[in-house]
Amino acid sequence: MFKKIIQFFKEPPAKPVTMSEEEVKKTYSHFRWRIFYSSFIAYVVFHICRKNIAVALPAMGADLHLSNTELGILGSTLYVTYGIGKFINGVLADKANVRTFLPTALILSAICNICFVISSSIITPGHVTFFGLPSAAVLLWIMAFFWGANGWFQSCGFPPVAKSLSYWFSNSERGTKWSLWSTSHQIGVFSAVMISGIVIDKFGWRAAFYVPAVICIITGIWLFDRLRDKPQTLGLPDVEKFREEPTCQKVEPSEEKDERSYFEIFKKHILCNPVIWMLAIAYIFVYIIRFGTEDWLVKYLVEVKGNTLTVASSKLSSLALVGAFGAIFAGVISDKIYKGNRTPINIVFLICLILSLLAFAANPVERGYLDYIYAAMIGMFTSGPQMLIGGLCAVESSSKKVASASIGFTGVFGYVGAALSSGGTGFVVDKFGWNGAIAFWMISTMICVVICTILMIYEKARKKNAP
Which of 81, 74, 73 is nearest to 117 (CA)? Predict the structure, then answer.
């Protein structure tokens, strides 16, 4: 049984290239487009079983009598398991079959959402005690368990996508393709917010978990049919050979001639790579601001500015939707203007993010319509560094053969930041009010600017001293 499970997820073997040049071109053209849109849709749908909790927080907290700190602890469980899982599953994804690995994770994530909400219906706070513990405490930890399990399966989504984009698209096009794909983050958040807001208004907060779960299961089944693993497993040549261009790592041996073990490549390009470490530390602070705004903005608008849940959700959706354009802009500009140098655009975006946060917090209630613009600016200037620092920069600073692992490594640090953001924001709000939360997010952004500046200086010095 165990062997069958391993075989199900194991990466299929490479096939010899027996196609004609015309057949290779036609097959590549077909599957590159198919892999791209399947990966895009997959990650959009992953988000609706992850970000649904952001809209449900106000109603869920009131119904279950949970404080901001308790809601923060609950949200942090996903980020802790996601961060750990992203690294472990990143290593596994490098050797796993994308076609089976990703859809299975999506379906299991949906099941966790169902279990999460069912537990809140079975155990009612204040009615029963378990083993001498208040039922409210028992419920909190049971829900935390299922939300943490959801985080683990959610962490299986990005690594196989990173693997696919690295193998199906070459270096000269990867910045633009990756930035286009990365809009799935923002569209996923937008979809999660809109779907959750609509179903909560009609059927209550629990529907925000049931409905996305059904969508994820159906999508997971569809992805089994759409996805494929590396081009070599279909009898195609490397994408660099197909496009007749060099690899990102020019001094690295080709896949056919490289006899190093996976661990040797992993050690050189990740564990002993100072650039990867700086990117990972910067990613902590990117995720503090990213998830601080995504998870708490609805509650902030309801409690501080007196918005209805519908209005607050629509403002958050503008953050997500316009954020998609920020990711595209960052990727294209870093390709076309900075010639593949991603750090300068990260610094520019982060400085603009600080100004956007100041404008959003200072905007008076009577000018609430401007919140849509400021929220959109926050989304735009967060999405660029979020896409580049822990994603494209990490892949390009390592080796294609450990693409998923490099994403997983920076992802661990990112989700340390996410856990700090969720639990930290809840704690800061309870102790210092919402102005404290705004300050928490702004200080995190400033620290990230400093790290990116150090990285830019280091990269210039390394290029100058290169033979």
Answer: 74
Q: What Å distances lie between residue 160 and 90, 291, 392, CA to CA?
A: 7, 22, 14
CA dihedral 460, 464, 466, 467 (to 10 degrees): 160
Is the Cα torsion angle 225, 230, 231, 232 positive or negative in sign? Answer: negative
Which pLDDT does position 310 carry in this prediction? 79
Containing 129, the helix (H) or strand (E) segment is strand 129-130
Predicted local confidence at residue 251, as pLDDT: 43
Alpha helices in 134-238 (DSSP H): 135-154, 158-168, 171-203, 207-226
Q: Is the predicted pLDDT of residue 345 greater than 70, yes or no?
A: yes
pLDDT given for residue 249 in this prediction: 46
Q: What is the secondary structure of 368-433 as a DSSP string?
A: TTHHHHHHHHHHHHHHHHHHIIIIIHHHHTS-GGGHHHHHHHHHHHHHHHHHHHHHHHHHHHHHH-
Domain 29-239+266-459, CATH among 3.30.470.20, 1.10.10.60, 1.20.1250.20, 1.25.40.10: 1.20.1250.20
Give, as one character, the DSSP assignment of residue 254: P
Is residue 341 within 8 Å of residue 335, measured between CB atoms?
Answer: no
Cβ distance 104 to 89 under 8 Å? no
Measured over the CA atoms of residue 80, residue 82, residue 83 and residue 85, the dihedral's sign is: positive
- pLDDT tens across 45-55, in order? 999 999 888 88
Other CB atoms within 10 Å distance of the CB of residue 84: 19
10 DSSP β-pair partners: 96
Lookup: tokens for 61 = 């907290």
Give the tens place of pLDDT for each residue, 369-397.
888 889 889 988 988 888 888 777 777 77
Report the predicted TM-score, pTM, of the whole model to 2 decimal places.
Answer: 0.72
The predicted-structure confidence for 292-314, as pLDDT tens digits, reads as follows: 888 888 888 888 888 887 788 78
- The answer to whether residues 418 and 77 touch, using CB atoms and an 8 Å cutoff, is no
Pairing, β 129-130 against β 133-134: antiparallel
Residue 227 has, within 13 A of its CA and on its CB side, a CA count of 30
Q: Which of 42, 103, 86 is nearest to 280 (CA)?
A: 86
Residue 357's pLDDT is: 92
